[in-house]
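Example record used in the benchmark description.
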Amino acid sequence: MEKIITGKVWVLGDDIDTDVIYPGKYLPILDPVEMAEHALEGYSADFPAKLRRGDVIVAGMNFGSGSSREQAATCLKSAGVAAIVAGSFARIFFRNAVNQGLPLVQAKVADRFNDGDEIVINFEEGRIGDTVGNRYPFPRLPESVQAILDEGGLIPAVRRKLGLTQPSKD
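Model output (C-alpha coordinates):
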Protein backbone atom coordinates (compact mmCIF):
# COMPACT_ATOMS: atom_id res chain seq x y z
CA MET A 1 0.00 0.00 0.00
CA GLU A 2 1.17 3.49 -0.78
CA LYS A 3 2.07 5.47 2.33
CA ILE A 4 0.78 8.68 0.72
CA ILE A 5 -2.38 8.64 -1.40
CA THR A 6 -3.46 11.63 -3.45
CA GLY A 7 -6.74 11.57 -5.30
CA LYS A 8 -9.92 13.27 -6.40
CA VAL A 9 -12.69 13.28 -3.82
CA TRP A 10 -16.23 12.00 -4.08
CA VAL A 11 -18.24 13.12 -1.03
CA LEU A 12 -21.03 10.84 0.15
CA GLY A 13 -23.32 11.19 3.14
CA ASP A 14 -24.10 9.08 6.19
CA ASP A 15 -25.35 5.49 6.20
CA ILE A 16 -24.02 4.43 2.80
CA ASP A 17 -24.99 0.78 3.02
CA THR A 18 -23.84 -2.24 1.06
CA ASP A 19 -26.96 -2.15 -1.16
CA VAL A 20 -25.97 1.36 -2.22
CA ILE A 21 -22.34 0.36 -2.73
CA TYR A 22 -23.11 -2.87 -4.61
CA PRO A 23 -26.80 -3.53 -5.33
CA GLY A 24 -28.02 -7.04 -4.55
CA LYS A 25 -29.20 -7.71 -8.09
CA TYR A 26 -25.53 -7.99 -9.12
CA LEU A 27 -24.55 -10.60 -6.53
CA PRO A 28 -24.38 -13.41 -9.14
CA ILE A 29 -21.47 -11.58 -10.83
CA LEU A 30 -18.17 -13.15 -9.77
CA ASP A 31 -15.65 -11.27 -11.91
CA PRO A 32 -14.21 -8.29 -9.94
CA VAL A 33 -13.71 -6.27 -13.14
CA GLU A 34 -17.38 -6.66 -14.02
CA MET A 35 -18.35 -5.98 -10.39
CA ALA A 36 -16.50 -2.64 -10.60
CA GLU A 37 -18.89 -1.55 -13.35
CA HIS A 38 -21.63 -1.35 -10.70
CA ALA A 39 -19.72 0.33 -7.85
CA LEU A 40 -22.02 2.77 -6.06
CA GLU A 41 -24.71 2.32 -8.71
CA GLY A 42 -27.24 2.31 -5.86
CA TYR A 43 -26.09 5.80 -4.92
CA SER A 44 -26.46 7.15 -8.44
CA ALA A 45 -27.02 5.22 -11.67
CA ASP A 46 -24.28 7.20 -13.41
CA PHE A 47 -21.77 7.01 -10.56
CA PRO A 48 -19.80 4.02 -11.93
CA ALA A 49 -19.09 5.96 -15.15
CA LYS A 50 -17.74 8.93 -13.16
CA LEU A 51 -15.47 6.93 -10.84
CA ARG A 52 -11.80 6.88 -11.88
CA ARG A 53 -8.82 4.86 -10.70
CA GLY A 54 -7.18 6.70 -7.80
CA ASP A 55 -10.34 8.49 -6.60
CA VAL A 56 -11.02 8.71 -2.88
CA ILE A 57 -14.43 8.36 -1.26
CA VAL A 58 -15.06 10.71 1.66
CA ALA A 59 -18.22 9.87 3.56
CA GLY A 60 -20.06 10.54 6.77
CA MET A 61 -20.93 8.11 9.51
CA ASN A 62 -21.70 4.38 9.27
CA PHE A 63 -20.16 3.67 5.87
CA GLY A 64 -20.74 0.08 4.72
CA SER A 65 -23.65 -0.77 6.99
CA GLY A 66 -26.13 -3.42 5.96
CA SER A 67 -25.30 -6.91 4.82
CA SER A 68 -21.99 -8.69 5.19
CA ARG A 69 -21.48 -8.96 1.43
CA GLU A 70 -17.79 -8.72 0.67
CA GLN A 71 -18.67 -7.66 -2.88
CA ALA A 72 -19.15 -4.09 -1.59
CA ALA A 73 -15.45 -3.77 -0.76
CA THR A 74 -14.40 -5.85 -3.77
CA CYS A 75 -16.23 -3.67 -6.30
CA LEU A 76 -14.74 -0.47 -4.86
CA LYS A 77 -11.23 -1.90 -4.86
CA SER A 78 -11.68 -3.23 -8.41
CA ALA A 79 -13.04 0.14 -9.56
CA GLY A 80 -9.75 1.68 -8.48
CA VAL A 81 -10.89 3.52 -5.35
CA ALA A 82 -7.58 4.42 -3.69
CA ALA A 83 -9.01 4.84 -0.16
CA ILE A 84 -12.17 5.52 1.80
CA VAL A 85 -12.32 8.18 4.49
CA ALA A 86 -15.41 8.09 6.70
CA GLY A 87 -16.54 9.28 10.11
CA SER A 88 -17.17 5.64 11.01
CA PHE A 89 -17.40 2.26 9.32
CA ALA A 90 -19.63 -0.73 9.84
CA ARG A 91 -17.40 -3.39 11.40
CA ILE A 92 -17.96 -6.10 8.80
CA PHE A 93 -17.35 -3.68 5.91
CA PHE A 94 -14.17 -2.49 7.60
CA ARG A 95 -12.88 -6.05 7.83
CA ASN A 96 -13.91 -6.90 4.27
CA ALA A 97 -12.11 -3.79 2.99
CA VAL A 98 -8.93 -4.69 4.89
CA ASN A 99 -9.14 -8.23 3.50
CA GLN A 100 -9.33 -6.74 -0.02
CA GLY A 101 -6.42 -4.38 0.64
CA LEU A 102 -8.62 -1.27 0.41
CA PRO A 103 -7.18 1.46 2.69
CA LEU A 104 -9.56 3.01 5.21
CA VAL A 105 -9.28 6.14 7.32
CA GLN A 106 -11.61 7.00 10.14
CA ALA A 107 -11.99 10.78 10.24
CA LYS A 108 -14.97 13.11 10.37
CA VAL A 109 -14.02 15.34 7.44
CA ALA A 110 -16.90 14.93 4.96
CA ASP A 111 -17.95 18.53 5.61
CA ARG A 112 -14.44 19.76 4.75
CA PHE A 113 -14.38 18.50 1.15
CA ASN A 114 -16.42 18.85 -2.03
CA ASP A 115 -16.68 16.56 -5.04
CA GLY A 116 -13.63 17.07 -7.21
CA ASP A 117 -11.36 18.42 -4.46
CA GLU A 118 -7.93 16.88 -4.15
CA ILE A 119 -7.12 15.02 -0.96
CA VAL A 120 -3.77 13.83 0.36
CA ILE A 121 -3.75 10.99 2.88
CA ASN A 122 -0.45 10.43 4.66
CA PHE A 123 -0.58 7.12 6.51
CA GLU A 124 2.86 7.52 8.11
CA GLU A 125 1.95 10.87 9.69
CA GLY A 126 -1.72 10.02 10.29
CA ARG A 127 -2.87 13.17 8.49
CA ILE A 128 -5.29 14.15 5.76
CA GLY A 129 -4.58 17.30 3.78
CA ASP A 130 -6.33 19.46 1.23
CA THR A 131 -5.06 21.83 -1.44
CA VAL A 132 -5.37 24.96 0.72
CA GLY A 133 -3.10 23.69 3.49
CA ASN A 134 -5.62 22.34 5.99
CA ARG A 135 -4.49 19.24 7.86
CA TYR A 136 -6.70 16.82 9.77
CA PRO A 137 -5.28 14.10 12.01
CA PHE A 138 -6.63 10.57 12.08
CA PRO A 139 -5.91 7.57 14.29
CA ARG A 140 -3.49 5.14 12.72
CA LEU A 141 -4.60 1.61 12.11
CA PRO A 142 -3.30 -1.13 14.39
CA GLU A 143 0.03 -2.51 13.19
CA SER A 144 -1.49 -5.90 12.36
CA VAL A 145 -4.18 -4.31 10.17
CA GLN A 146 -1.68 -2.00 8.50
CA ALA A 147 0.52 -5.01 7.71
CA ILE A 148 -2.36 -6.68 5.85
CA LEU A 149 -3.02 -3.50 3.86
CA ASP A 150 0.69 -3.13 3.10
CA GLU A 151 0.65 -6.59 1.51
CA GLY A 152 -2.40 -5.75 -0.61
CA GLY A 153 -4.96 -7.71 1.40
CA LEU A 154 -5.39 -10.79 3.55
CA ILE A 155 -4.60 -13.44 0.94
CA PRO A 156 -1.30 -11.85 -0.15
CA ALA A 157 -0.38 -11.30 3.52
CA VAL A 158 -1.01 -14.94 4.39
CA ARG A 159 0.88 -16.14 1.32
CA ARG A 160 3.87 -14.05 2.34
CA LYS A 161 3.67 -15.27 5.92
CA LEU A 162 3.67 -18.86 4.66
CA GLY A 163 6.68 -18.08 2.47
CA LEU A 164 4.75 -18.54 -0.75
CA THR A 165 5.59 -15.03 -2.07
CA GLN A 166 8.12 -12.29 -1.57
CA PRO A 167 7.30 -9.22 0.58
CA SER A 168 5.73 -6.26 -1.20
CA LYS A 169 8.01 -3.38 -2.19
CA ASP A 170 5.89 -0.58 -0.64
